[in-house]
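job 3f2a | input accepted
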Amino acid sequence: MDLGNPHVTSLPVASRLLWARGLRAFCDGYVAVLLPAYLQALGWGTADIGMLGSVTLAGSAIATLALGQFGHRAPSRRWLLAAAGLMAATGLGFAGLHSFWPLMLIAFVGTLNPSSGDVSIFLPLEHARLAQTGGGRDERTRMFARYSLVGALCASVGALASALPAWLADRFGVDRLAALRAMFVLYAAVGAVVAALYVRLDGARPASEPPPAPLGPSRGIVWRLAGLFSVDAFAGGLLVNTILALWLFERFGVSVADAGRFFFVSGLLATASQLAAPWVARRIGLVNTMVFTHIPANLFLVAAALAPTLPWALAALLARSTLSQMDVPTRSAFVMAVVTPAERVAAASFTAVPRSLASAGGPALAGALMASGMLAAPLLCGGLLKIAYDLALWRAFRHHQTD
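job 3f2a | predicted structure (403 res):
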């Protein structure tokens, strides 16, 4: 096999990464909806659930920071296999334990994802491998759009699968708590399948690709982006799917099955928006696509917070979904385009770390606000902060060219 020819190696690598992303996203989709229901069944309160979400994101941030600092010392396949093993252990831990502190510890060190996007250590590793498979700016954007599209589509199917425990309980008389635990066993099994996909990744890099290195010449722009992304991430932490599901439960009395159906439709709309992202980016640029689709999405989020009835709230949230994810592939493509190839793993990690750290405080704050009776506050604050981020990003990088 000619490792210097990207057309020989890119398809197998990209295919395996896309399969792995899809399987992980499927699990993330149902876990984000079932997690608050599972923890409530264990006797946890609203503030406790928010705290677990924060601990999860904080643990992901620290792991990603370590990866950015030391990830260049070992092949990416080795790190990916370790992450897949950790995913399997996380699922078994949540299935087998029920006490507060053990679950908090597993949430901190594990791969659980309470949000609609990927915040785990898988992300920078897979991004760096994907960047090796693309050519110029347009090809990278299309590749990251496919990656994001697969994630969004599979997460929406996973959200629909969150109705399985209730279906098993109603149809076959299975104990509801046991059915919920079975979904975490499935999470562990998927971790093993993901590991099998990673085992077959080529451990060698293309001959034209320089070895991974810590941040160097691109350090300045990476930290500027990381600072801006952290504002968006803190706002996003107020709005992770686990919190949105909890908001629907508390504000309108929505059932777990109905919440799963909502997140399924929302995920399909987000998928459609990501399909359009490369087309829009070719015409108006990466930064403009990130900003000018994100601002209307966040105005819809504010409208949902103020909606007087469930139909109006769901309509606003679904309208938000049609636009809110166009910035995901374009943001990834932009970061990969503005750094040198050798810095891509480090850049992906160091832009992800402030995002994870900033978002870590969001679920705990959102849970506390909701527990105090201010149910709409997370949505209002999150939407307004995201608009401020959009404007700051556009001002800072509107003239920046990529290729």
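job 3f2a | The first helix runs from residue 6 to 41.
job 3f2a | closed
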